[in-house]
Design a protein that fits this description.
- Keywords: Cell membrane, Membrane, Transmembrane, Transmembrane helix, Transport.
- This protein has about 350 residues and is mainly alpha-helical.
- The chain has helices spanning about 1-10, 40-45, 50-65, 85-90, 100, 105-125, 130-135, 140-155, 160-170, 175-185, 200-220, 225-235, 240-265, 270-275, 280, 285, 290-300, 305-330; strands at about 80, 90.
- It has two domains: about 35-65, no CATH class; about 95-330, MetI-like (MetI-like fold, Orthogonal Bundle), CATH 1.10.3720.
- About 65% of the residues lie in helices and about 0% in strands.
- The longest helix has 28 residues, at about 305-330.
- Residues about 1-30 have low confidence and may be disordered.
C-alpha cells in the first residue's frame, strides 16, 4: 500500500511526463509562421504579375494625368510666365496668396457663391438618389423597375452643353413653355438669364442630370438586404415606415456616409463646365465660383500664379475635409473611406 502511494506521488510530481503544450501558451513553443508569411514581395509580384499588368495602363493614366501635374503647383509661388517656363520664372514666395489672405473682393464673391451652391446641393441634391432608390426598391415589378431605371440613367450620359441647351429651349424667354403661354394669352416667366434664380437653375439641372445615376450604388446596397428581415418585421406588426427606418436605412448607412465624405472632398468644386456655359447670361457677380475664378484669372487674364494659389488652397481644403469627415465617421463607428 505504501509503495503504491509513493508511486502515485512520483507520478503526480514535477517529474511526470507532461502532454504537449498549446502553441499559444506562455511557456510553449512559438507558433510557426505560415508559408504565406515568408513569401517575399518579389514572389508576390511574380504570383500576381498578370493582375498587375492588367492594372498597369490604368495606373499609368492616373499617374500621368493626376499625380504628375501636381508638380506644376510650384507656379503658385512664382510670377509664372509661360514663355519663360517654370525654371526661369521669378520666385515670389506667398505673394500670390494675397488675394486669399487680404480678402480680394472678386475672390470673396467667388468663395461665397461656391459655398452657397455647395450647401444647397449637399442639403437638397445629395439625399435625392437615396430617396429615389428607396422608391425604386419598393416597385414589385422588375420589368417596370428596369424600364424606369433606363429612363433615369439616360440624362447622365448627356454633356453639359446639351443639358444647358435643353433647358434654354424649354425655359428660355423664347422657349417652348413661354411660346405656349403667349399663344394662349397667358403670363410668361423668366428663368434663364435671371441672376437671382441662377443658383436654383443650376441645382435643378444637376438634379435632372445626375439623380438617376446616383441611385446605382444605393440600389446595389439595398439588393443585399435579406428579405426575411422584412417578412419577420411585418409579422411582428411593423409598418412600411418602421421597416424602412429599422431595416432599409441601416443597410445603406455606411454607403451614404462614404459618399458624403467623398462629396465633402469636392465641396469647393461645383461644376466648371455647367457654370461657364451660362455665365455670360447672368454675369460674374451671380455665377462666379472658384473654378471659374481660376479660369478667368489664369487662362483668360494671365494671372497664372494667383490662379494656381487659389487652386492649391482649394485642393488642400478638400483633403482636410475628407480626412476630418473620415475621422468623424470613425468616431461614430463607421469605416469611412479607409479603416483605422
Amino acid at each position: 500500500m505504501t509503495e503504491t502511494i509513493k508511486d502515485r506521488a512520483k507520478a503526480s510530481g514535477p517529474n511526470r511526463t507532461r502532454g504537449p503544450r498549446s502553441p499559444g501558451s506562455a511557456t510553449g513553443k512559438p507558433k510557426r509562421p505560415s508559408p504565406n508569411a515568408n513569401r517575399t514581395a518579389l514572389a508576390r509580384i511574380k504570383r500576381d504579375r498578370m493582375l498587375l499588368l492588367l492594372a498597369l495602363p490604368g495606373m499609368a493614366v492616373v499617374a500621368i494625368f493626376h499625380y504628375f501635374p501636381l508638380l506644376g503647383n510650384v507656379i503658385a509661388f512664382q510670377n509664372f510666365q509661360p514663355f519663360l517656363g517654370i525654371s526661369q520664372s521669378e520666385w515670389v514666395g506667398l505673394d500670390n496668396f494675397d488675394v486669399i489672405f487680404n480678402g480680394d473682393p472678386r475672390f470673396l464673391n467667388a468663395l461665397a457663391n461656391t459655398l452657397i451652391i455647395t450647401l444647397i446641393q449637399v442639403l437638397f441634391v445629395f439625399p435625392l438618389p437615396l430617396a429615389l432608390a428607396l422608391l425604386l426598391n419598393s416597385v414589385l415589378s422588375e420589368r417596370v423597375k428596369r424600364g424606369v431605371q433606363s429612363v433615369l440613367y439616360l440624362p447622365h450620359f448627356l454633356s453639359w452643353v446639351i443639358v444647358v441647351a435643353l433647358f434654354q429651349q424649354v425655359l428660355g424667354n423664347a422657349g417652348m413653355l413661354n411660346t405656349f403661354f403667349r399663344e394662349h394669352d397667358m403670363a410668361t416667366f423668366s428663368i434663364i438669364g435671371v441672376p437671382e434664380l441662377f443658383k436654383l437653375l443650376i441645382t435643378s439641372q444637376v438634379i435632372w442630370k445626375d439623380t438617376g445615376w446616383g441611385t446605382i450604388i444605393f440600389l446595389a446596397a439595398l439588393s443585399r438586404v435579406d428579405m426575411n428581415l422584412y417578412e419577420a418585421a411585418a409579422m411582428d406588426g411593423a409598418g412600411a415606415w418602421r421597416r424602412t427606418w429599422h431595416i432599409t436605412l441601416p443597410a445603406v448607412r455606411s454607403v451614404f456616409i462614404l459618399l458624403l465624405i467623398l462629396r465633402l472632398g469636392d465641396a469647393l468644386t461645383v461644376g466648371f463646365e455647367q457654370i461657364v456655359l451660362q455665365q455670360g447670361a447672368v454675369g460674374k457677380a451671380a455665377s462666379e465660383v472658384l473654378d471659374t475664378y481660376v479660369y478667368n484669372n489664369g487662362i483668360v487674364g494671365g494671372n497664372w500664379g494667383t490662379s494656381a494659389a487659389v487652386g492649391l488652397v482649394k485642393g488642400v481644403v478638400g483633403v482636410v475635409l475628407v480626412l476630418g469627415a473620415n475621422k468623424l465617421a470613425h468616431v461614430f463607428g463607421e469605416r469611412g473611406v479607409y479603416s483605422r
